[in-house]
UniProtKB/TrEMBL annotation:
It comes from the Bacteria. It holds the Pfam family DUF402. This is DUF402 domain-containing protein. Residues 34-104 form the DUF402 domain.
Amino acid sequence: MSATGSDQADRCFVIADEGVQIRKPVTFVDALEGGWYIDLIDLEEAGPKELAVHDLYVDILVPPLGRRYEVLDLDEFADALEDGAIDAATAVRVLRDTQRFIDKHLRNLNQDPPGSWPDFPPAAILGLAELPPFDVAQRT
């Protein structure tokens, strides 16, 4: 059972070529309920047919209402770079991936004022995201 008492579990969608993991947390309540959380990630082959997802600190929050987004945890990203938890090449990739994701999915530079997201949720996951939620109780 989730933190909200729901029998639903978060589903995560990884878009490997964009370096992101996207989820719609079932723990979001009130003003965030129905919102999306995007993690900038790195993938590692952990074994045969097994990938490990590593969070690279920078996150994007897309609330359910309105056309806005928030970039989060830049302080954690800076701390990781300063402490050597990530190297400069990884930091450069994360910053570029963040900007590319925002430009591709959340900003429409040709529309003023913006009337809709250019591609959010991303078309790459839309069909999966629209499937009914899994029932955790049935899986056990």
